[in-house]
Specification:
- With about 120 residues, the chain is mainly β.
- It has a single domain, classed as Jelly Rolls, CATH 2.60.120.
- It is built from one helix and eight strands; from the N terminus they run E-H-E-E-E-E-E-E-E.
- Strands 1, 2, 3, 4, 5, 6, 7 and 8 form an eight-stranded mixed β-sheet that branches.
- The radius of gyration is 14 Å and the shape is globular.
Amino acid sequence: MAPESPYSINYDVAYGFLKLIDIDKIRSGVTDEWFNQTLCEVNDSVIRLGVVRGEFHWHKHDNEDEFFYVVDGTLFIDLEDQIVELKPRQGFTVPKGVLHRTRAPERTAILMVEPKTVVATGD
């Protein structure tokens, strides 16, 4: 039997077109340490909300870029040769094929924009 994942990753689209998405309301209901919810689709991409604390594992996406935007808290994106620190209202794009890891020393809310084909845990 495979070990249980420490991440709560929800790929189902939670909100269709013409629906209000209240990030603060969703965020306040999250109890998981590492939560990821697909909010909506925009053309061939998805917008995901992450409410995170701690470290994600090192991974890469061979065919997809990822954009991270911090709503609140602090997010570090570790790359092989640098560490990027994101504060609220800052964003950063990790291009496809680049090995990376995200970590949050405190409870942090982030929005991610990526193609809907992306597997959050990497290729």
